[in-house]
Amino acid sequence: MGKRLARIGLPYLLLLPALALELLIHLVPMVVGIVMSFKQLTQFFIRDWSAAPWTGLGNYRMSVDINAPVGRSLLNSFWVTCAFTLLAVGLSCLLGTTAAILMQDTFRGRGLLRAAFLLPYALPVYAAVITWSFMFQRDTGLVNHVLHDQLHLTSDRPFWLLGDNSFTALVTVSVWRSWPFAFLTLTAGLQNIPRELYEAAAMDGAGIWQQIRRITLPALRPVNQVLVLVLFLWTFNDFNTPYVLFGKSAPEAADLISIHIYQSSFVTWNFGAGSAMSVLLLLFLLLVTAVYLFLTSRRRDADA
Amino acid sequence: MLRPPPSFRWTRRILLTLLSVFTLTPVFVMLSSSLKPLQDVQGPFRWIPSGITLRPYLDIWKTVPLAKYFVNSLIVSVSSTVCSVLIAILAAYAVSRYRFRGRRLFTVTVLSTQMFPGILFLLPLFLIFVNIGNSTGVALYGSRGGLILTYLTFSLPFSIWMLVGYFDSIPRDLDEAALVDGCSPVGTLLRIVVPAAVPGIVAVSVYSFMTAWGEVLFASVMTNDTTRTLAVGLQGYSTQTDVYWNQVMAASLVVSVPVVAGFLLLQRYLVAGLTAGAVK
Question: CB 3.0-4.6 Å disulfide test: which of A11, A156, A276, B237 passes with A37?
Answer without folding.
Answer: A276
